[in-house]
Amino acid sequence: MNDPAPTSGSQPGATRRGWSADDPDDSTSALAARFRTLADQDFAGYSPTYERIARAIADDPDSLGLLLDAAPTGRTPILALAAVHDIVLGDPQTALAAVYAGRSDADPWPAFRSLLHDRQGDVLQRMRTRAIQTNEVGRSAALVPGMAAVAGAARRAGDERPLALVEVGTSAGLNLLFDHYSIDYRRDGEMVHRAGPPTSPVRLDCELRGPHDPPFASHGPTTPVASRLGLDLAPVDVTDDAACRWLRACLWPDVSDRAERLDAAISVARTDPPHLVEGDAVTELAPTLRALPAGVLPVVVATWALAYLGRAGRERLLVSLDEVGATTDLVLLTAEEPSAAPWVPGLPAEVATCGDATGDGTTTVLGARTWRAGAATDEALALCHPHVRWMAWATLTGGPR
Question: What value does the mean pLDDT take over residues 208-228?
C-alpha cells in the first residue's frame, strides 16, 4: 500500500493533520473535505496538477457523487486519481496525458472531469477491484537509518543475530531492497552521508533537518540481512508489465523523479524478485514470524500500510505481535501517520517543528517497538516527509549535528 489520503488525527509531537481510514462519514461533504485536505497538505508545493484537480473535485457535487459509489471514502481520493491516471497511461493521446507528461500547460481540470464522467465505468471498475499500490521507493531513505538504529540497539543488548525482514503492505516489495539503492543525505545542500552501492540505478536524495544526524551502518559493524519477505493482500509481480503500470498510475504528476526511481527500482527487483506472499497481515503476520528459522532477529516493517488496516485491524495486529514478542525477541519498525501507530511516543519539540513548510505532506513518524526478553519498549526515531524527501532524526542514537 502507499500514499496518504489525509483527513484528521494527531498526537503529541505531530505538527500536521494526518490520514485515517476509520472515519465512517461517507457524505459528499466529508469526501470534499478529504480532497481539500489533500490539496492543502500533500499536493500544495509538490504536485500542482493534483492540487488543482483535488480542489475542483471538492467543489463539484456531481463528481463527488460519482466517486462515492466506488469505494469507502477513506481511500477514495487517491484511488480515484490513480484510476484516472491508469486510463491516461493506456491512452497517451488524451489531452490529460499531455498535461500529466508536462507537454501542455493547460488547466488539467476540464480534461480530468471529462475523462472521469465519459469513462466512469472504467474508472469505477478500477476503484472497486484495485488497491492503492506503490509503497514509495523514497521511503528506503528512512529505512536505511531505521535499520541501523535497530541493529545498533540489538548489538548494545549483545545480540549479533542477522535480521529477518517481514514487510506488511509490501506492494511489489521494492522497499525490501532498501540497501540496494544509492541514497544521498544532505544538510543545507552539503553531503552528510551516501548509503548503498554508488553504481545503483536507483538514486535517492534526502534532506536532513533538525538537531541530529541519523545513524548509518557505516558508523559501526554492519548487521547482515538473512531473509526478506513481503506480505500483502494483493502483492505486485514486478515481472508483470500490466501490474507495474498500475504502480505507475498510483504516482502523482509533476514529480518526475518518483516515476524515474520507480522504473529504476523495478529494474533492480527484476534481477532478483523479492519473495512476496499473499495474505492478510492481521491474521497471517504472527504465523509468518513463528515460521522463521531460529538464529535470526525478526524485524517487521510497515511504511504507510497500517493506516489502511483500520483501528480494529491495527489493534488486532499489535495484540498478535505482543503475543509473539512475549516469547521471541522482535522489532516493529514503522513509518506511519501518528494515529496509525499510536504506541510511538511523541516527538521532542525541536524535531516536531521541522515539518511545517508547504509541501511537507502528511505527518509521518518513523518509530520502533522492540520486544526483548518479553518486555516491549517504544521509541520515536524521526519525523519525515511521507515520501522521505526530508527527515529530522529525533534521538541521540544518530550523530550530533
Answer: 82
